[in-house]
Specification:
β5 (60-64) and β6 (70-73) form a beta hairpin. The longest helix has 9 residues, at 39-47. The two termini are 20 Å apart. Helix content is 12%, strand content 50%. By secondary structure, it is mainly beta. The strands form two sheets. The chain has a three-stranded antiparallel sheet, with no helix packed on it. It has a three-stranded antiparallel sheet with strand order 4-5-6.
Amino acid sequence: SLSVGTDCNTMGAKYMVNKNSLSFDKFVSTQMYCDGSQEQEFVSKLNDVSSYIFTSKGELILEIKMDSGSIIFR
């Protein structure tokens, strides 16, 4: 399972891994309203993750579908 704290809420989800493919399912979240939050954009990007890698620096990189970019966790 995945546990995330965003700029507004905390959330969790199930994830599935198949080789280097990664997908998330069944997001649950607290329901606080925060003006100007970028949480929905973040969750939208998580739903579009296609694969992941770990770098030699220990970073987690989530690749977004259709070469739409990546999310880097340091």
